[in-house]
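quick one before i forget lol
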Amino acid sequence: MKLLLGTRNPGKIKEITTILEGSGWSFSSLQEFAGVGPAAEEGATYAENAIAKAQFYAAATGMLALADDSGFEVAALGGAPGVYSARYAGDNASDADRRRLLLSELAKADSRDRRARFVAAVAIARPDGQVLNVSEGTCDGTIVFEARGTGGFGYDPLFVPDGYNQTFAELPDDVKNRISHRARALMRLRDSLDHLHPSS
C-alpha cells in the first residue's frame, strides 16, 4: 500500500513519514515526480487548499495522495498571515525572509499580544478526485522576539507552544511530532488509514 505525499519539502516529508510510521503504508513524494508542477492554492481555508492539492497530485500521478495546508495565525495581526503564510513575503522569499517580515509587522502592530497558533489540514484523495479523508489540527502558543533554534522549518524558530519554553525549532523532533498542528491532524487521519486501500 503506497501513499504519495504531495510535497517536496524535506522537513514535511520527514515529519509526515515519522508520524505515520507503522501505519502499514509506504510513502513516495513529489521528489520522485519532477514533471509534476505545483498545485494551485486558491482556497479560502486550509481544508480547501489541502483537498485541492490532494486531488491535483493524485490525478497527476495516478496514486492515492495525501496533501496538507498549514498556516501561522498571529493574534495581533488579525490572524495573518494565515492561509497566505507560505507566500507572505512573496513567491520567491525564503523562510528567513518571511520570519523577518512577520517580526517587523508585529513590531508595528498596535498590540503587545504575542499569542499565535499553527493550523493544519490534511486531506487524502484518489486519482478520480474522490476525497477520502480530511483532518485538522491546531497548536497554540506565543511568538518570541527573535528566531531561536536550527530545527524545523518555516515559522518554527519564532513559536513557543503552550506548556514549553523552547521554540518548535529547539524542541526535539519526537516532542514536536507529538504536539504540533500537523501531528495532531495526521494522528486523526491515521485512524482512517487502516480502512483505506488504493483499490477500495
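fyi Strands lie at 2-5, 26-29, 65-74, 81-82, 115-125, 131-143, 159-161.
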